[in-house]
């Protein structure tokens, strides 16, 4: 399910045993990926041992990409879980604090 977000994701972030692993897929605008990763690292520092193992995909562009209309049919698959800086009424991207939130 997570892998289906790969076509639009900029990077994958994995937390395992309190460590962060990053796989970058494509370059982001300015430093949006760096500050998103930095925000996760701060959470690990502030709450050591309290973040569960996770695998997340992030899109750092301004426009959300997972269209709700693509998943309305009765037999359609579930939308890929993609975290993004932006969202809208017609999309299903999971809003995550933008790079400016973390202290640009």
Structural account:
By secondary structure, this protein is α/β, with parallel strands linked by helices. It has one domain (2-95). The protein is built from 1 helix and 5 strands, in the order E-E-H-E-E-E. The protein has one helix spanning 32-46; strands at 11-16, 19-24, 54-59, 82-84, 94-95. It has a 5-stranded mixed β-sheet with strand order 2-1-3-4-5, with helices on one face. The longest helix has 15 residues, at 32-46. It is globular, with a radius of gyration of 14 Å. The mean pLDDT is 87.
Secondary-structure map:
Blueprint: E1 11-16, E2 19-24, H1 32-46, E3 54-59, E4 82-84, E5 94-95
Parallel strand pairs: 3-4, 4-5
Antiparallel strand pairs: 1-2, 1-3
Poorly predicted segments: none
From the N-terminal CA to the C-terminal CA, the straight-line distance is 32 Å
Oligomeric description of these chains: single chain
- Global mean pLDDT: 87
The secondary structure category is alpha/beta
Beta-strand residue fraction: 15-25%
Largest sheet features = 5 strands, mixed
């Amino acid at each position: 399910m997570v892998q289906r977000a790969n076509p639009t994701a900029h990077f994958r972030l994995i937390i395992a045993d309190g460590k962060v692993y990053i796989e970058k897929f494509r370059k982001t605008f300015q430093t949006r990926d760096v500050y998103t990763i930095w925000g996760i690292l701060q959470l690990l520092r502030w709450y050591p041992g309290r973040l569960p193992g996770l695998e997340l995909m992030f899109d750092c562009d301004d426009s959300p990409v997972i269209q709700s209309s693509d998943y309305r049919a009765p037999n359609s698959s579930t939308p890929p879980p993609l975290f993004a800086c932006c969202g809208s009424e017609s999309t299903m991207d999971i809003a995550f604090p933008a790079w400016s939130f973390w202290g640009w």
